[in-house]
C-alpha cells in the first residue's frame, strides 16, 4: 500500500483525504497486529525461560517483526496530510476521529509521548474538534506506558472536567459490539462504559508504576465508595471492576510487594467472592469482589516464579488446581513444571 502511495507522489498525483485515511488506518491496524503477536511471543519466551526451554523460532519471529516500521510510516503520512490539507484559516482538515484514535493507539503501544503530543495538538487544531473518549484513553495510555505519572494525572483531570461539561464524544449504541454489549443499557453503550472504566484502570496502573501505591489505592477507594450503580453515567465515578482489582495485584507484584499482592489476590478468592465476572470491566456494586480470571492466575504464578518465590508460587498453584474445578480454569503443563 505504501508503494502505491509513493507511486502517486512520483506521478505528482495529489492524495486526497480519503487516501490519507486509508493509508494511516491500514498501517496502524498492521501495527496493532504486530504488537499483539510480539507480546504473545515475548510472553511465551518468558514462560519457556522459566523452565530453560529457549526457542530460536520465537527469536527469529521477533527479529522479523521488529524490522517492520508501520507506525513510523503512519506518522510520515500523517505529517504529510497536516502540511497539505489546511483551510483558509490555517486549520487542519479533520481526518476523522477514527484516524486520530488509531494513531494515538499506536503511540500507546510504542510509549511514544512526543508523537502523541503532536497528534493531540493537530486534533485540537482540526475543525469541529470534539475529543473522543477513546482518543483520551490512548493519549493517557501513551504517557502511562512511558511512566510519566504526573502527565497521566493531568490528562485524567482534563478528561473528567470535559466529561462534566459534556464536551467528550462517547461511543454510541450504534457502535456497540458483542464484546461490550453486556455493559450497555438503553441510554448508553457498553463501549462507552468500557472506555470510561479503562481510564481508571490506566490511572491506577500508572500510579503503581510510579511507585505511588497510596495514590492508586485512593482511586480504588473512591470507586468503592461511589454511589453510582452498574449503569454509571459519563460524569460518575464508576464502581470498581475485576480489572481494577487485578491492576492492584499486578501493581504490587511489579513493585516487589508480594505480601500486599497476595493479600489483594486472596480477597478475590474469598469464600463470599462472586463468580468470575462475565467481563473484566463490568462494574461490581455493593462491595462485591469477583473471583480471579485465568489471566490473573497466570500473572501471579509467573511473577512469583520470576522473582524466585517458589514456595509462594507452589501455594498459589495448589489453589489454582482447586479453582480450576470450580471456575473451569485450565492448568497448563508449564505451570506444573
What does this structure look like?
By secondary structure, this protein is mostly helical. The protein has helices at residues 2-10, 17-50, 56-67, 70-84, 97-109, 113-125, 133-146, 149-164, 190-209, 213-224, 242-254, 258-268, 294-306, 310-327, 333-336. The chain is 64% helix and 0% strand. The longest helix is centred in the first third of the chain and has 34 residues, at 17-50. The model has no long low-confidence stretch (mean pLDDT 88).
List the defining traits of the structure above.
337 residues; mainly alpha; 64% helix
Task: List the SSEs and their pairings.
Elements: H1 2-10, H2 17-50, H3 56-67, H4 70-84, H5 97-109, H6 113-125, H7 133-146, H8 149-164, H9 190-209, H10 213-224, H11 242-254, H12 258-268, H13 294-306, H14 310-327, H15 333-336
Helix pairs in contact: 2-3, 2-4, 2-5, 5-6, 5-7, 6-7, 7-8, 7-9, 8-9, 9-10, 9-11, 10-11, 11-12, 11-13, 13-14
Summarize this structure briefly.
By secondary structure, the chain is mainly α.
Distance separating the two termini: 46 Å
Strand content: under 5%
Taken from the alpha-carbon principal axes, the silhouette is: globular
**Average pLDDT:** 88
The radius of gyration computed from the alpha-carbon positions, rounded to a whole number of angstroms, is 22 Å
> Structural class of the secondary structure composition?
mainly alpha
- What percent of the residues sit in helical stretches (DSSP H or I)? 55-70%
Note the main sheet: none
Uncertain regions: pLDDT < 50 for 5+ in a row?
Answer: none
Number of DSSP strand runs: 0
